Amino acid sequence: MKLQVAIDLADTKEMLRLAEKICHIADIIEIGTPMIMKEGMVPVYEARKHFPNTLILSDTKIVDGGSLEAAYACEAGADIVTVLAAADDATIQGVIDKTHANGRKTLVDLINVQDVVSRAQEIDRMGADYICVHTASDVQATGRNPLEELRKIKAVVKDAHLAAAGGINEETIADIMQAGADIVIIGSAITKKEDPVKEAERYKRYMKAGDKNVQRN
Q1: pLDDT for 145-188, tens place per residue?
Q2: Rounded to 5 degrees, what angle do the CA atoms 118, 149, 5 make?
Q3: pTM for the full model?
Q4: Nearest CA to 175 among 135, 136, 212, 131?
């Protein structure tokens, strides 16, 4: 099980300062969509340059121009590129083919997909490396989280690894782990804390131990 830390609301300099502190803890550093919208591929390039031994995910959320946009992310140094499950199959396949041709991987994001079971099966057959259940930030205030969707797709996905994102914290991580996530994606529960290093270490220890409760030191 891998810990992915999502760095969203930051500029490149802030991202580098934070990533420097946690790159030895996180298995994957995510360059979040807001940062990419603001600064393009620059933060991906800089993360790759500064952290050559850390997996870098570019959360591009591609929805069209799959092969071309995946190529940009690969050129910038992303190890994993994201595409929306709501995109056309041709777009998703374009991302998968381009990333694989470059020795990289694709994560397909099920955010706002209504029938996650059927779509996950289709994407699994297309050869995606990762399929992610994702509760949108705009609806997390309602109490929704990705747990139930994770349980549903775990039962039907045969080949792809599974990721879960969206409001995961110390109250939900145990259930997410037990439901079979291969990658646990945590953002503000780490990055917005006063001591993000301590928080990242705590979640990482918890994930390694497989405990049922996150205990504060």
Answers
A1: 788 999 999 999 999 999 999 988 888 899 999 999 999 999 99
A2: 120
A3: 0.93
A4: 212
Going by pLDDT thresholds of 50, 70 and 90, the confidence category of residue 217 is: very low
Q: Decide if 216 contacts 202 (C-beta within 8 A).
A: yes
- Rounded CA-CA distance 59/73 in Å is 9
Domain 2-209 has CATH 3.40.462.20: no
Secondary-structure breakdown of the chain: helix, strand, coil percentages, each rounded to the nearest 5: 45, 20, 35
3-state secondary structure of 128: coil
CA distances from 168 to 46, 50, 79 (A): 27, 27, 23
pLDDT at 114: 93
What 3-state class would DSSP assign to 91?
helix
Owner of token pair 């994560």 = 107
Task: Label residue 210 left, alpha or beta by phi (over 0 means left) and psi (-120 to 50 means alpha).
Answer: left
What angle do the packed helices 196-209 and 12-22 form, to 10 degrees? 50
Task: Measure the CA–CA gap between 147 and 149, rounded to whole angstroms.
Answer: 6
How far lies 215's CA from each of 51, 164, 171, 184, in Å? 30, 21, 11, 18
Domain boundaries, the chain: 2-209
Contact 131, 123 (CB under 8 A): yes
User: In sequence order, what are the residues at sequence separation of 6 or more whose Cβ sits closer than 8 angstroms to the Cβ of residue 92?
Assistant: 66, 83, 85, 106, 108, 123, 126, 128
